[in-house]
Design goal:
The protein is an alpha+beta fold and 340 residues long. The strands form 4 sheets. A 6-stranded antiparallel β-barrel has the order 1-2-3-6-5-4. A 6-stranded antiparallel barrel has the order 7-8-9-12-11-10. The longest helix has 21 residues. It is globular. The two termini are 29 Å apart.
Amino acid sequence: MLDSRLDFVRDEDTQAAAPSVATPPVPPDDEALLDAYSQAIIDVVDGVGPAVVKIDVWHAGKPTRAGSGVIVAPDGLVLTNSHVVGGASRVALMTTEGRALTARVVGDDPDTDLALVRVDAPVTLPAARLGDSKRLRRGQLVVAIGNPLGFESTVTVGVVSALGRSLRARSGRLIDDVIQTDAALNPGNSGGPLVSSRGEVIGVNTAIIQGAQGICFAVASNTAQFVLGELVRHGRVRRAYIGISAQQTTIPRRLQLASGLTQSSAATITSSEPGSPANRSGLLTGDMIVTLDGQPVTGADDLIRLLTGERIGRSIEIAVLRLGKLRKFSLAPEERKRAA
C-alpha cells in the first residue's frame, strides 16, 4: 500500500547542516530554454487537458474503483482501460470543468487492457486526437494526464524510456508494442492519456510496477486506434491468432538493400507458443516479419492490425528475414479465444 505520509525538513535543520550559499542567477540563454520547455508542457496541458475525464465505477451498486479516460470523439466516446471499467454496472464521468455525466461501456478488450465508454446524453465535448505511436523515439518528451490517487487533473512529465515492450494483461495474454515511460503514474492514472509534445495522444496509461521507480507503461496509440475501431463496429475485438509475441526492431541498412525492402523496421518474433500456427509453420524466435499477406509489417502494431477476424481459418503468407535472407511461410491463423 502506498504510504501517503510526507517528510518535512525544518529550516533550522538545513541551516545548521550547511552554510548559506547564494543561488547563482540563471544565465539568460538557459532561462530562455527553461521558458520554452515550460511553455511546451503548458501548451500540451491546455490542449489535451479538457479532454481528460475522471471515471468512477460501480459493481452491484457499490463503488469499486476510479480511473481516468480520454475523450476521443466530441459526441462522448471515451477511451480508457479494460481493468478500469470491465464488468461495470454503472459508469460516471467527471470533466475538468466539473460536469458530471453518466456513461455505458461500449466494449472492452482485456487482451490489450483497453475499453470504450460512451456518454449517455447528447453532448459536444472537447476531444483529443490520437497520434502515430510508430513515430516515437526513445528520449522523446511525453506528458501524462490523469487522476492519480483521486487528485484530479494531475500532470506529470517524462520521456519515452523504451519502445516495443511486452506486458502481460489480466487476461493472461501479452500486450505487444507497449511504451515504457518514466512519467510518474499512480493508481488512478489508469486509462489516462500519454501525450507527445505535439499534443497528440500516443499512448493509454495502463500499468506501474509496484516498488519500482520511474518504470511505467502505456498501450501504444496505434494499437488503441485499431481496438477503438473494432469496438465501435462490433462491440468486441475478433482476432486471428498465430501464437507469437513480437516487438519492433530496425532492419540494418545492408539487409534492406540486399532484400529489396523499402521499410526500415520489422516485427521481430520474441517468443512462439508450442503447437501454435506460427510454430507449426516453421517460424522461429528471432525471425523478422516484414510482410503479412503482402502488406508491410514495420512493427508489432501492424501485426495486431492485420490479424483481423477476416483472416481466421484461411491460408496467409508471411515473409521474414532470417540470417539475412528473405524467406516465406504459409499458415492458417486460428481464432483467438477470449479468456474467461
